Amino acid sequence: MSETRLAPALRTFLRYAGISAVALALFAVVLLAAGKDPLKAYADTFTSTLSSAYGLSELLVRMTPLLLTAVAVALPSRLGLINVGGEGQLYMGAWMATAGVLLFPAWPRWLLLPFAALLGFLGGALWAAIPGALRAARLVNETIATLLLNYVAPLIISYSIFGPWRAEGSSAYPQSPAFPDAALLPTFYDTRIHAGFLISLAALLAYWLLLERTRWGVDMRAIGGNAEAAQRLGIPVAAWIVIALAIGGGFAGLAGMGEVMGVHGRLRQSLSPGFGFTGFLISWLAGGRPLGILFMAFLLAIITSAGDTLQITQGLPYAVVNILLALILFLVLARQPQRGVSK
Predict the structure, then answer these.
(1) Which domains can be identified in the chain, with CATH numbers?
(2) Which of 22, 135, 138, 305 could pair with 142 as two cysteines, CB 3.0-4.6 Å apart?
(3) What pTM does this model have?
(4) Which residues, 6 or more positions from 94, have their beta carbon under 8 angstroms from its beta carbon?
(5) Each residue's pLDDT tens digit, 132-158
């Protein structure tokens, strides 16, 4: 029985490992064409991330928002919904969490941390519920709506830190006031790994349990398989569209909360280097599978961390990382089964 359960997981691991190996081989050709040594580049990358306690800890810090934003995409995808708005939902979660901290800075930690985390979840959930409601009413496609809202959320952040939340003495680099110690997430040992990492693992586990161990998961899969048939069976499809997008957005909002309360200690304009978009890529590459999300988040955390290393050791621009990500994406696309085009 255990071997039966292990086989799918092993096949999934081998599939992603094979895709990654081929992508690294193709990327080596790109490095050679640029006159660089690919073996040294890979050695420097893995040495900086995996060979030291500091490198591993920073890898987990980077994985935290990637896992949460990937779950934010994977959950509504079970209904056939495409949530491209993880970046905006992350920003709104950070904004709402900051609002809670600035409103009640004197609250004790045991009260302020859960309150700010709840606001972070609500910020992302409400931001995702807007396109969910529009999609449920058949007014606007959720893909377009979530994508466009990504450009609105950072503007709200900018207004806040350039205006009412601007800290004194931050004229060159506008940002909110520093959070009190009671609003900072606990860290582990002498690293930057914060409690948000445990939250991200809990979110991934909750996603798996929801899909595999609850009636809600059965309803979601039924809607994803055939929404019209699910409607006839009495499943409230319109409500599930809003709920699934809202819960997914809430997870992305928790990623934003983790960034401001676990990493930066304040709200900043450069809050995310594209965690929401990378999370979308992770979920898509993993096919929405929890184990695949975990593996791809680990791999893409290494790849995105490699940008800084390659800048220093190889003199390559950080954007070269996008080439490697694109190669992985193209390889996954090439392995997708051919489907007939609907007419």
Answers:
(1) 2-335 (1.10.3470)
(2) 135
(3) 0.89
(4) 120, 123, 157, 253, 256, 257, 259, 260, 267, 271
(5) 999 999 999 999 999 999 999 999 999
